Structure formats: structure tokens, C-alpha cells
Amino acid sequence: MIWILMDLSILVLLFSLLCFDKIHATELSTISGSQVLTNNDTLVSPAAIFELGFFQPDNTASKYLGIWYKKISVKTVVWVANRDHPITNASAVPLVLNITDLGNLVLFNNSTIIWSSNTTSTASISLTVKLLDTGNLVMVGPQEKMIWQSFDHPTDTLLPGMKLGKDYLRDIEWHLTSWNSNQDPSPSGLTWGADIIGYPENKLRQGSVVKYRGGPWSNQRFTGASQFNRSLTFVYEVVLTKSEVSFSYILENSSMLTRTALNSSGQLESSVWVEEGKKWQLSLSLPRDICDTYNICGEYGSCSLDTVTQSCACFDEKRFVPRDEKRWDTADFSGGCVRRTPLDCKNGSDGFIKYSNVKLPDAEDTWFNMSMSLNECEEECLKNCSCMAYANPDTNVGSRGCVIWLSDLKDIRVYSAAGVGQDIFVKMASSEIVGQSSNTKKGDAKVKIMLVVIIPVVLIICGLSTWLWYARKKRKHAEQMEGGVSESQLPLFSFSTIATATANFSTDNVLGEGGFGPVYKGVLKEGLEIAVKRHSKTSGQGIDEFKNEVITVSKLQHRNLVKLLGCCIQGDEKLLVYEYMPNKSLDSLIFDQKQSMVLNWSKRFNIIKGIARGLLYLHHDSRLRIIHRDLKASNILLDEDMNPKISDFGIARSFGGNETEANTHRVVGTYGYMAPEYALDGLFSIKSDVFSYGVLVLEIVSGKKNRGFIHPEHDNNLIGHAWSVYNEGRSMELIDENLAKSCDKSEVIRSIEVGLLCVQQNAGDRPNMSSVVRMLDDEGTLPIPKQPAFYMQGELLVADFTSSTYNAGSVSDLTITEVDSR
After folding, report:
1. Which among 316, 587, 630, 736 is annotated as catalytic?
2. How many other C-beta atoms lie within 10 A of the C-beta of residue 604?
């Protein structure tokens, strides 16, 4: 009987393959019975919001069955069926998605099962597959009974109506798993989902290691992701029952397209589609800052971005002290803090102190009962010597609910803005709670008398100890933080920590060397890979550049800017600690004949656009307007997905208010990238950065350096050569020969034209970065560029200064400090 069923399935499949040409490239509304979805067919939702079909990631030969948005111009895949099993021979053999006789939704390739829903149904003859307008692919039986749905098997994207958590009755767990890269949808080690041990909350993990915690649900928001607020776009649905624990959201405005995705870099991003701009507008990215790093300050430590010299402090500095003060003073916060006065649970004299605006601690080791009152919760905690704190996670007035923490508190954060966090009652020794208005257990008469006697003495001792401790701490940091580095909000690393991470600055760990000094790869003890810039005594840069980089970069947060994790000053040592970029700098790839083949056109165009977005943030969107002043290929770092990160802000300048330009007597930068008004008169502005960007674009397209390139036929440098071939309608001759056959011609020509617009001689003619970003994203007609500055003809440096607002000066008399780092 089994063989008969198998034969029937194969016959249906073969019949479907024979009929392939007849149903080629069609749009279906449902799949039922023996109906087949093949290579170019698609299944469309009723309102044509989503589409199911086969897609092929850019620059790959693999095909996948997936769901994406149908009407938007940017193809955005939200679900992949066979993410573990790419189809590499799809062009030779048709792909078939069908319902088998056994009631199973199966993807075939040459009669080989690639993917299956792993379902069976006695009513298979009546099964129908539909794609709903929610993006949910469902297989239903008679009376629309749900047999299988894609929402039960999320990939990297959470759509409205999808759940995170667990269904205990069906033994199904819902969580997101990121793609390995933009071209590889196979699951990586990064996951985002509900931790259902203890009071449920969402966590970001890399393997088994927690990287970020969203905080518990407060009936209004998740306290670790406070921007998600009911008053905005989303309405949350939270289920906490014995049969199901789940979190989901729906849209108040159903006409909006929104998605939350876990990307391959470990960022959970919520985006809204903006039709006018034809792009996804990022509304929230988590983790947001260094304080979102899981348990960064240890037990009873609290992270804050408001501190001057470090990011960690004891949760309550009057009642908690660092576990290891020496390590704490060197910015090693892993040991956390401990109570100044130990608890005395056996004598029943402990009580509680209330703290507000708190991101409630990690709830993994907790017990909860949502029918208890707050007073009942306090009594329950007092009866249990393992209980360290209690709280009602529901912030609604008069609500009931109780969570008690059964171990030391970790991953705490105290918010500066009122109404963001929640209240928590932390257990304290009786001597610490006198005079507090919070809930406390009433002691007996003898205890009260003793407290009245010893309070003045304790207060004097504690006050004196606290004053001495703060004075010593302040003195140490004053010695460490030279000349204003304390203005930053970055943690300080000890020199021993960095030395250990880099194997004592081993030459085997050297990544390169720039104007500041050598750069080393290191690994911190928790496994985080870092890049360490160590100041060289022979460097042309000094404490001013060091301070400038620390103070400037610590205030910047953008995906296309390299992240500064911290710094170290000890004696003559000055160290900067960055996130590690596995693909090093852009110049190490595009200017090397072999390495340049790694960067196909799609990646190069993504780099061009990413640098533009980073500069747009510096010039317009950051709190201060930042002029980089040394934008070049060696200062563009590449992450594991080849996304660009602007680095090296040692000579950057920040402007406030309506400032747009400034003048300097000390011209610093790198030959080949400096705008003429800066090189000749020291005048710099956002338009001088735009000039450097234009040079960089031409270098990325051509794979040639502007400085040092001389065309064999007309002796032009790169700018001059680009200008010549553009005027003669031969712009495609500029492209790196490795890309000529595989590139998008329209994107290449648009990039060259944008580059030439950016290197125009007159700064006023150059576009700002917001215009550059639009020009790269749109397909409209571009302005016609004017003659660029600084292009070579023979041995003559050509630049027509007659129309400029500055004097030419004498090129031969220029003194330029070339800061050529990394």
C-alpha cells in the first residue's frame, strides 16, 4: 500500500512537470489538489500585499522558496522555506511546490524533496494553500481548519500578528534566527526570542550567550526597549498562560507596512516602508548603545550614559560597593557590586527599599504569580531567604502581579527619564532602611531602640567612608583622564586588560599602522574581538588628536560609523579600543589586483551608498555637525558583510548651531583627497568632505588610486581621466576591468556622475550629502557636472581659480601634514 501511495505522488509530480510550459510565469491565488507552483509562478495574497515564489539572492547561484512584499520597489524577503537547503541546479530542472496525497506541502527538485511542511492529513484531497495579506502562508482543510502555517516557523522577520514564545500544547517554539549574510539566508547563531525560564522576556543570543535583553513586559512596553510604546504605531498582545507564553504585535494603522528583522550583525531593527522615498525607514534598532550590552556592569551594577568617566556604577552607591575595587577602578566591571551590609534573613530584620525608573533585572531565576497583590508579594519575599527583590511588572494602577528574584540581581539599568522604567523593591539589611518611606518589615521594640542608638554613629562612619572613597576615586580618575578625555561617555579599559587581549601587543596581531600608530587585533576574555590603536611616540599625532577622537566618536551612533568601545590612558600609553572589522580597510581590497575580485559591483555600490549615509549622519543628523577632514579609502573599514564603516576621527572638527565652515592655519589630511579650498587656503566645510567622497567614489569604481594614477595616453590623474571619458561619452571605460561583465551599467554611470559632481572645483557647486544619497537611490536625471578641481595634464596641475572666492596661492609653497592612518 505504501508503494502505491508513493507511485501516485510521483505520477502527479511527473504530470506537473510535463505541464510546466502551460503554467509558466503565472500568478495564483491558491494551491489545491494536484495544482503546482513552479519556477516562475507566484502565489499572491488577496490584496496583493505579499507574494510567494522562488528568489535568488544577489550574486549567488542558489534559489529559495520565499515570501516577499509584492508592491514595493525594494525586494524584501520575510520568510524562507528551504533556508538550510539552497537549490543550485534550478536552471536545469523545474522546481515544484505541491500538496502530496498524504497531505504534505512539499518542494521538489527533480523528484528530490528539498523542503516539507512535515504534515499529514486524512482530508488531503480537500487541502488548500493560501497566502494571506498578513504574509502568513497557510494550508487549510475543510471548514478552513488550520493544518500548517508559516507563522509557526519564523525565519529572520517578525511581521504583525506573528508570535515569539512557546505553545506548550503543540510543542512549538517561535523565535527569529538571522541570515548568515545578505546573500545567505541559512540560519546563523543569532536568535531573538522569549526566554520562558522564570518570568518570560525576550533575549538576543549568539549561540547560548545572551547579548541583549529586552526586559519584562510592563503592560505598556518592554522596559528594555522603551521606544516601543502603545501610543505609537504598535499594540502589543501578550499571552502568559500554562498552555502558551507569547509576545506579538499588531498595527493600529493597518495601511502601513512594517517589519522587525534580526540582521546578520546582531541588530534587531524595526522599519516602516516610506513610499515617497521608496525605502525602509528605520524606526528602532536594538541594542542601542553600550549600556544595552547584557550584564555589562555585573551583579548589582547599573549602566548609564550620563556618567562622565565610565559607564558603570553600583546600583545604589550608598548601599552597594564594588566587589573588587581595584579592578573596578580600572574599568573592569565584571565583578559587579555587593551589599555594604549583608542581609540577616534568619533574624527576620531585613526590609526593602524602593527604586524607580529601573529596567527590571534578568528574570531567568524568578518565581511569579500574577494574582498576588504587592503586599502579598512582599510577604512572600520575606519568607524566602533566597529572595533578593520583588516587583509588580504590571504598571497599571491597581493591578495585581508578583515577581520575586531568587538570586543576585544582574543586567540592571536605571533610566534618567521619568516614566520609562519600573519600580523594584530590593531587600536590605535593617540598618540600611531606616528613614526610608518604602515598604519594610516592622522590627520588634528592641531592634528599634538599638537603631535609634547606633544610627548617628553609622551615618557618620558611612558618610566619612563614602566621602573618602569618592575623593580617592575622583583623584585617580583625574590623574588618568588627561586634558578633557573625561568629556566622553566611554568606559576606560585597564592597560593590563588590553595587553592580555592582544597577547602583549604581539607582532602577529598587527593589523596595520597609520598616522596615530599601529593597530592590533585583540580578544577580550568574554570573547569579543576588538581592534586596538596604540599611540606611537614617533606619530605626528598626539594627545589632541587622541582627545578629539574619544570625545567626538563617543557621541556618534550610526551603522556606517565604526564603534569606539573605550579607551585607555596609563603613563605614556594612549590606546583606543574599537569594534573589530574582519575585512579590514577598503584600500586593502580595491587597490590590490587579487583582493579586488572579492568586491563585485553590487558590494561596491553598497559601499558607495553606505559611506554616503554615514557622511549624511555626520553632516546633518548627529547632535553636532562633524567635518571628518580625512575621508579616504584606508579610513573606510568593512565588517563581515562588507558594510562600510567610517573611521579615524582624530582630526575631525565639530560645528554647532548654524556653523557651516571654518578656517585653519594647520592643514592636515591626505594628498589626493583634499578639496582645493582646504589645501590652498585652509578653508574646510561639509563641502570639503563631499570632495573627498567624490574622489573615493571614483576610486571604488575604477579600483585605482587618485594619487599616483597617470593615464599612459594623456597623463591625466584619476579625476582628469574620469572627466575626459565622461565628456567623450565613454564613462564605462573607467570601471575596474574585473567588473566590466557583471556590473549594472546604469549604476556605474550614475556613480561616476555623482563622483564628478562631488569633485567640482567650486565648493558651492558640489551637492550636499542628502542630495548625494537621493541621487544614488533615485533613477532621475542628474545635474551636469562642471570641470573638476586638481586634475593633471602632463606635468601641469590644472585648476581654474578665476571663478572661486579664494586666492590660488602658490602650490609649490604649500606645507601639508599628511596624516595617513590605516
Report:
1. 630
2. 26
Q: Which residues contact 76 (CB under 8 A, 6 or more apart)?
A: 68, 69, 259, 280
* Nearest 10 degrees: Cα torsion 359, 361, 362, 366: -130
Helix 601-616 to helix 686-702 angle (10° resolution) is 170
pLDDT tens track for 235-281: 778 888 889 999 888 877 777 898 999 999 899 998 889 888 889 98
Q: For all residues of the chain together, what is the average pLDDT?
A: 80
**Residue whose C-alpha is closest to residue 615's, from 767, 494, 479:** 767
The reported pLDDT for the residue numbered 515 is: 67
Instruction: Say if residue 662 is in the same domain as residue 540.
Output: no
The DSSP code for 212 is: E
Say if residue 168 is in the same domain as residue 231.
yes
Alpha-carbon distance values, 767 to 186, 284, 776, 786, 820 (Å)? 40, 29, 12, 12, 26
pLDDT tens figures, 443-498: 444 444 455 556 666 666 666 666 665 555 545 544 444 444 555 557 788 899 99
pLDDT of residue 378: 94
pLDDT digits (tens, 9 = 90+) for 760-776: 988 889 999 999 999 99
Among 164-173, 471-480, 705-714, 749-758, the range scoring the smallest mean pLDDT is 471-480
Q: Which residue has the higher pLDDT, 747 or 681?
A: 747
Taking the chain, what is the end-to-end CA distance rounded to the nearest angstrom?
A: 70
The whole-angstrom distance between residue 709's C-alpha and the CA centroid of its chain comes to 37
C-alpha cell at 773: 544619497
Please say if the pLDDT value at position 531 is more than 60. Answer: yes
State whether 277 and 357 are in the same domain: no
- Strands 27-28 and 42-44: what pairing? parallel
Can you list the alpha helix ranges (DSSP code H) found in 226-316? Answer: none
Give the C-alpha separation, 745 to 294, whole Å.
Answer: 46
**49-65 tens-digit pLDDT:** 999 999 999 888 899 99
Residue 324 counted as domain residue: no
Q: Using CA atoms of 395, 396, 400, 401 in order, give the dihedral in degrees to the nearest 10.
A: -30
pLDDT band (50, 70, 90) for residue 661 = low
Q: Count CB neighbours of 171 within 10 A.
A: 7
β pairing state of 817-818 and 668-669: parallel
List the CATH number of the domain containing 405.
Answer: 3.50.4.10
Yes or no: say if 295 and 362 are a contact pair by the CB < 8 Å rule. yes
> Which residue range forms the structural domain that includes residue 411?
342-471
Residue 294 lies in a domain: no
Closest Cα to residue 349, out of 443, 452, 458?
443
Sheet harboring 351-359: ordered strands across? 312-314, 301-303, 412-414, 351-359, 422-428, 389-391, 402-405, 366-369
Amino acid at 285: S
- Structural domain count of the chain: 5
DSSP annotation of 562: P
604, 653: one domain? yes
Residues 649 and 782 both lie in one domain: yes
**Considering the domain boundaries, does residue 321 fall inside one?**
no
CB distance 394 to 417 below 8 Å: no
* pLDDT confidence tier of residue 84, bands split at 50, 70 and 90: very high
Residue 630: active-site member: yes
Contact between residue 402 and residue 199 where contact means Cβ atoms under 8 Å apart: no
Residues 159 and 149 in one domain: no
What's the whole-model pTM score?
0.54
Length of the chain counted residue by residue:
822
- How far apart are the C-alpha atoms of 603 and 435, rounded to whole Å? 63
Domain with residue 253: its CATH number is 2.90.10
